[in-house]
Amino acid sequence: MARSTLFASKPSVTPGTLFGYASMVVIAAIVLVPIAFILLTSLKERPDIYTEPVQWIPDPFTAENYATVIDDVPFIRYFLNSLLITTVLTVVQVVLGIITAFALVFLHYPGRRIVFLFVIASLMVPNQVTVISNYALVAELSWRNTFAGIIIPLAGVAFGTFLMRNHFASLPREIVESAHLDGTGPFRLLFRILLPMSWPTVVAFTLITIVTEWNQYLWPFLMADTASVAPLPVGLTLLQNNEGSTNWGPVMAGTILTMIPILIVFLILQKQMIKGLTAGAVKG
Description:
Layout: H1 2-8, H2 15-42, H3 46-49, H4 64-72, H5 75-106, H6 112-123, H7 131-140, H8 147-151, H9 158-170, H10 173-181, H11 186-194, H12 199-214, H13 218-223, H14 232-235, H15 248-280
Helix pairs in contact: 2-15, 4-15, 5-9, 5-12, 6-9, 9-12, 12-15
């Protein structure tokens, strides 16, 4: 009897399970195959890149393309510029997004809903629509080829405000009311009560902001004509169309070097996000 019960409890493979596994394999292939191709191409010698049919495995492996990236363009300068721009924009957007969302949810003042409608409306307008007006304003202020010209127009926080506002609105009102009864002020309410309950959302907001700003291309491309302020996505375009043709080996190597910092940040923040989500799922 025990033996039959043991066999009966063994889970069976259903069509839904098979479909789920097949979907995961397809999605993993769509994501990983291009990355694997870029990585392998960055390790090939130049003649092997243009062979037909495509030679997937480099023969021989070479790091020459990575040396070309470091030597032919001021890669370290571009990296430091990207680090500065991304760090400043992330801090500004996260801080402003949290404070603005707090004001929209917990502070009562005339026109609060109108302000929120403007935030939603700004989400519906593509950034490319405002490029011409922003460019004219920045040029008038003589901010081209400066970090201020790159950072300030990108410091808007409509998405972060919307995300944090919805999260704050979903928190139990009883906690906020209890804090008010205890005489808790707005700043203490935000930093001592709300933020500790909101770390998963804050980390997700931070991660999205880092990835977005690290990969910014169009606006920095319009603003930066020199290596002194150009970020990595702009600087690596110098590796293309060199002498009438593109040497794809260094381009792929530069792409890999640009991806590595974001992957590291994602892995670090992912652990904190999972930890926060797990802790938030436990109710006392």
